[in-house]
TrEMBL record, chain A:
It comes from Rhodosalinus halophilus. Belongs to the leucine-binding protein family. The keyword DNA damage does not apply. GO terms for biological process: amino acid transport. This is Branched-chain amino acid ABC transporter substrate-binding protein.
Automatic annotation (TrEMBL), chain B:
It comes from Rhodosalinus halophilus. It comes from the Bacteria. The chain crosses the membrane at residues 9-26, 46-63, 94-116, 123-144, 201-221, 248-268, 288-307, 328-348, 354-375. It holds the Pfam family BPD_transp_2. This is Branched-chain amino acid ABC transporter permease.
Automatic annotation (TrEMBL), chain C:
One of its GO terms (molecular function) is transmembrane transporter activity. It is found in: Cell membrane. The keyword Transport applies. Keywords: Amino-acid transport, Cell membrane, Membrane, Transmembrane, Transmembrane helix, Transport. The chain crosses the membrane at residues 16-35, 42-64, 102-123, 190-216, 237-258, 270-295, 307-328. It comes from the Bacteria. It comes from Rhodosalinus halophilus. The lineage of its organism: Bacteria, Pseudomonadati, Pseudomonadota, Alphaproteobacteria, Rhodobacterales. This is Branched-chain amino acid ABC transporter permease. InterPro entries: ABC_transp_permease (IPR001851), BCAA_transport_permease (IPR052157). Pfam families: BPD_transp_2. GO terms for cellular component: plasma membrane. Belongs to the binding-protein-dependent transport system permease family. LivHM subfamily.
Amino acid sequence: MTKSNITRRGVLKTGAVAGAGVALPTIFTSRAHAYTNEPTGSTVTLGFNVPQSGPYADEGADELRAYQLAVEHLNGEGDGGMLNTFSSKALQGNGILGKKVEYVTGDTQTKSDAARASARSMIEKDGAVMITGGSSSGVAVAVQALCQEAGVIFMAGLTHSNDTTGKDRRANGFRHFFNSYMSGAALAPVLASAYGTDRKAYHLTADYNWGYTTEQAIKESTEAIGWETVNAVKTPLGAGDFSSYITPVLQSGADVLVLNHYGGDMVNSLTNAVQFGLREAQANGKDFQIVVPLFSRLMARGAGENIKGIFGSTNWHWSLPDEGSQAFTRSFGTKYGFPPSQAAHTCYVQALLYADAVERAGTFEPCAVVEALEDFEFDGLGNGPTLYRAEDHQCFKDVLVVKGKENPESEFDLLEIVEITPVEQVTYPPDHPQFAGGSLGSCNNGA
Amino acid sequence: MLGLDRRDLTLFIVVLLLALFAPFLLNPFPADSALAQFNAGYPDLMQRFVIFGIFAIGFNILFGLTGYLSFGHAAFLGVGSYAGVWMMKLLTMNVIPAILISVLFAGLLSLLIGWISLRRSGIYFAILTLAFAQMCYALAYSVLTPITGGETGLQLNLDDPRILGVSQTAEGNIPVPHLFGLEMNQTWDLAMGGWEFTFSAGYYLAAVVMLASFYLAIRLFRSPFGMMLRAVKSNQQRMNYTGLNSRPYTLAAFVISGMYAGLAGGLMVSMDPLAGAERMIWTASGEVVLMTILGGAGTLIGPVLGAGLIKYLENILSKINKGVLEQWFAFMPDGIDSFLVTIVYPFVGKGWHLTLGIIFMLVVIFLPGGLVEGAQRIGRLFRRERKPAAPEDPEHHPKPQPHVGE
Amino acid sequence: MDVIILQILNGLDKGSAYALIALGLTLIFGTLGVVNFAHGALFMLGAFCAVTLNRLLTLSFTTVDETRTDFLGNPAKVETPYVEAWFGPEVGGWMIEWSVPLAILFAIPIMAIIGLVMERGLIKHFYKRPHADQILVTFGLAIVLQEIIKFYYGANPIPTPAPDAFKGSFDFGVLLGFDPLTIMYPYWRLVYFLFAMVVIGAVFAFLQFTTFGMVVRAGMADRETVGLLGINIDRRFTIMFAIAAIVAGLAGVMYTPILSPNYHMGMDFLVLSFVVVVVGGMGSLPGAVLSGFLLGILQSFASMPQVIAVLPGINQIIIYLVAIVILLTRPRGLMGRKGVMEE
C-alpha cells in the first residue's frame, strides 16, 4: 500500500523525521489530535466498507464501482459526472480541501460484527476520516454506532430500515437513501388508484429489523387508504423455498400479497408466488395482486419475468431524465459498460455530499462537517431538490414508484417509473411514531 | 515454577513474550512502505487475535482432550456477549462485571446443553450441539429481537439506565467501556524511524486474560483431570467397563470450554460494545473448529496459532483491492504488471474466502497435525535431527481414528 | 383439510431435495466412511450446470440495430443466439426454453467427472484420517468451489425458468373432490417430486438388483472381507462416489426453476442435509430418504400462519427441535446402525 503519510500518525512521523535512522523512541503520545485521524499530509483517506462476500456481494461490487468513480471525479479525473450538475459549487475537482482523495476498502460480509471489525481497521490502521457503504440496515446501524464512538463521519450506503435514522440515529451518521416509511407513503396512493381502496392485504415479512419496519410502514399507509390487513407472517431469512408460506395466502381471503423481502428472499418468494399461480388467481371478485415495497434492479434480475407489472418503490433509477441522473449514468456507463444501480447511486452521492460538506466547512473536523450537512439543501444529484434534515440526518427527496416493465428492451431495462412521488408527500415529523425512541446525541470528534 | 515443568514453562514464557511485544512483532513493516498493508499491529486486530485465541484454547479443552466435536460453541460466545452488553446497559461500563456475567451465563447455558448433548457421542453429539446453537442463532436473529437487538445486534443507547454510572457523558455521548477508569479504546503511539507502534489498553487487558486462560489450560492439560479426559478420548468404553462414569468429566470439560467461550464473548464486547447474532451462526462454530484443527488439535499453542491465522487472513487479505495491487506491481513493465494483477486479484479482496479455502486444504493435506506440526518439522530441519518417525509427541496429537468402513 | 394437503405437498417437495442430498451423503459415508462437507457444493454445481447450459445455448453474436438506442444513447446492440441462427428461431428457441431438462443430460457426465476427480484426487487420501480432518478438507474444498462459481457468475441469484409447458398449476382439489382452485400445485414441483422418486428408486434398484450393487452393499457391511475375497472394492466405491455426485447434481439441476441458483445455495443446504442424514441414522439409505421427507413436511407444517401465531419463531427452529427430540429418544437416529460414527 503506498498511501503516503496520510494517517494521523503522519503527524508523529514528521516529528520523528529529525531522529530518523536512529531507531530511538522519539515520541510517546496519547490523544494529541484535534479530532480522530486528522489528515495532515497532502492526501485524505476515505473508507469504503461494502459487502464483498455473502448474498449482497454484487451490490457491494456496484457500490465500490460508484465510489471509485466518485474518487476520480473528486480528484478532477474523468468527465466530472454529477459534479457538473450539483447545485453546490464548492468542489473544485482538486480533491477535498486540496488534498488528493485516496481510499481503502473492506468487506462487511453483511454481518454487523465483521462490518465493525472492517471499519475499525480502516479507522485504526489506515486513518480513514469517513466510513461509507453497506447494503443492509443491520450493518448500517452497527457501523454508524461505531463511527459515533470513534469520532468519524458515517455516510450510510443502501439502508432502508426506519431505524437507521429513527431509533438508532446517531449524530455522526447520515443517510441519503429513502426509508420504509417513505416507501409506504409513496406506494399507497398509487396502489389505491391501481387496485382500489377496498383490498385485503396479506404480508409476508422477513423476520428481522428491516422486515419489521417495512411491514409496519406499508401496513399503516395502506390501512390509511382503506385497505384491510388480513395477516402478517414472518419468514426466516434465507428460507429458500417459500411455498409453505405462499400456499395459505389464497385461503386467507386476501386479494393482495405484500412481500416485505429483500435480496434473495425477494427473488425466491416472488418466484414462488408466481409459480403458485397467484397472479392469475381471483379473490373477492378481483384479480389477485402482488406488491414488493422495496425494489432493487440488481436483485429483480434474479426473478426474471416474474416481476412484470408488479409495483414497488426505489430510491433512484438510471432512466430518470433529469440532468444529474443522466450525467451519472453516462459516466458510470462509459466506464463500466452497464448502467448503475440504486446502491451505486446513493453511494456516489454520499461521497460527493461528504466532500462538499468538508469543502464548505473548510475542515475535516466531524462536528464541523455535521454542521455543514445539517439542513443542507441541494439539487442536481438525481432526486430533485433534497434536504438533509438536521433533526434526524435523513435526506428528504422525491421517491420513485416503479413497476416491473412489460416489454424490457435490454437486460437493464427491468423497471419503469410509474410516478415520481413529490417530497412533500413522503415527509414526516421527526418524532413520528415509526421513528420514535431515538436521539442523535451530540457529534463526536473523537481523539 | 508456577507448577509447570521446564518444557511448559518455556512455552508459557514464549507466549508471554509474544503477547507482550505483539505491537512490535505485528508491525514489522515501516508505515510508509508498500508492505504496510500486511501490518496487523492495530488495536482491533490484536484484540481479535487474543480473544479468538481464548475461544480456541477453550474449545481445545473439549475437543483436543476428550475428542468430543462440538459444532455449537459459538452459541456460548454469543450468549456471553449478550450478557456482557446487558450488564453494561444496566449496571456499569466497567468491564469486570460484564466479563464475569458473560462467563456465568455461558457456563449455565453450556451446563444445560452439555447435560443434554453428552448423552450421545460422535457425530450425534456434534449434531445435537449444532442444533442447539442454530436454535439460539435463529431465535436471537428474529423473535428475540427485543432482547438481542436481532439483525443489528445488541448495542448501547443514550438512554440506558446504567445504575452505577452515567447514561451519557457530559458531551452527550455513550460512555466507553473502561477498567476502573482506564478506557478500553485508549491508545499510545510510538514512532521509531519509519516504524509506528500502537499500544492499546484494551489489547493488554485481553492479553493478560489470555495469558491467564492459557496458564489454566496448561495446568488442566497436565492434571489428573486432563488425564481422565484423554482416557475418554482414547477409549471411553474401556473406561466405563472399569466402573468409572466418564459423564461428569466430559460435562466438566464441556462447561469449562463453554465458559472460555463466554469469557471470549465478554472480552469482545468490552473492546467493542455490540453483540451481533451472527456470532452464533453455525459457520462461526465451524470457524473455531477450523482454528483448532488448523493450528493443531490437542496441542497447547496450536489453537492460538490457528485463530491468529484465520483472523489475519480475514482482516488483512480482504482489504487488498485492485488499486492496491496495481500500485504494488506498478514498477513492472507494462503488460506484466496487469498480468500479475489479473493473477493475484482473484485471491485477495473479495476473493479472500478462496485463499482461506485453499489454505485449509493445503494444511490438512500436508500438515495433518496443523501448524504446530509445520513448526516442528521446520524445527527438526534446523536441528538437523534425523530421528526417523515416531516423534515423542509432546503435544499429544490426536491418534488417527479408524474409519467406519473398516 | 385442503390446507393440510397443500402443506404436505409443499413438504414433499422440500423433502425431495433434502432426501436426494442426504441420499448422496449417506452413500459416500456408508461406502467410503468419509464425511463430505463438499456435498452441498455438489448440489450447487449441479444447479450451475443448468445455468451454464442455458448460457451456452444463449451464446449470441451481436448485430447493431440502428433503429434503437441503448441506455447511453448509442445504437443498440441486438444479440441473437447462435442456436437460433443455426437451427432456426423455432428449434433454437425450443432448446433454450427447455434448457433445464436438457441440462440433466449435460450434468450427468460433468458431475460424474467432478465426482471421480474429487474422489481420486483428494478424498482417497483421507480414508484413514480422522473425521475432523475429512470435514476440514472437504469444507475447504466447498469454499473453493463456491468462490470459483462466485467469481464467474456473481453473487446474485440467476433466473432459470422451467419450460413454458410446465408453467402454471395443476388443480389437485378437483381430483380429490374439493372445490376447484383450492389446491393448486405448480406442475414443475410435481415434476420435481416425481423426478426425485425416480432417482431414489433407481439408486435403490441399482444397489438391490445388480451384482455391482450387491458387492457395494457387502462392502458397506464388511469392507475387509469383501476385499479378502479378491474383489476390488475401492474401484467400486469410487464409482459410488461419482453416483452420489450425480444424484446431488441432478437434485440441483431440477431445483433451479424452484429456487434461482446462487453461489451459496450449497452451504445453505449443507447443514440441513447433515441434520437430515443424522436424524435418519448414519449410514442408512432408507433412513436418509425417510427423514428427508419427514423433516420437509414438518417444516412446512411449522410454517403455517396458524402455527406461527401460537408459537412464534417455531418455523425457524423446527428442524433442529425435531433433530434433538429424535436423537434423544432414538440414540442412532431413525434407522441408524450400531457403532457407526460413535467413537
